[in-house]
Design a protein that fits this description.
Helix content: over 70%
Order of helices and strands: HHH
Distance between the termini: 50 Å
Number of helices: 3
Shape: rod-shaped
Structural class: mainly alpha
Length: 71
């Protein structure tokens, strides 16, 4: 029974880690795409990428704040 609980715990930790890494990577990419769109003066695209970065919420990630600052 304890092995099952340990296995379930490991699966949950792995899922949380994968989701966290994915959101951090998405936030970083969206901020970069926002900056590139600003350089081209493509404001609707820049706003969309900034919003996506702001929505990439993960505790400790700087990208949501960066996204909000760009909005």
């Amino acid at each position: 029974m304890t092995r099952v609980l340990v296995l379930v715990g490991l699966v949950v930790v792995a899922i949380v880690a994968i989701v966290t890494v994915r959101e951090v990577a998405a936030g970083r990419a969206e901020v970069s795409l926002c900056d590139a769109a600003v350089q081209k003066s493509d404001w609707p695209e820049a706003i969309g990428h900034a919003r996506a970065a702001a929505e990439a919420l993960v505790p400790g990630s700087p990208w949501p704040e960066q996204g909000w600052m760009r909005l």
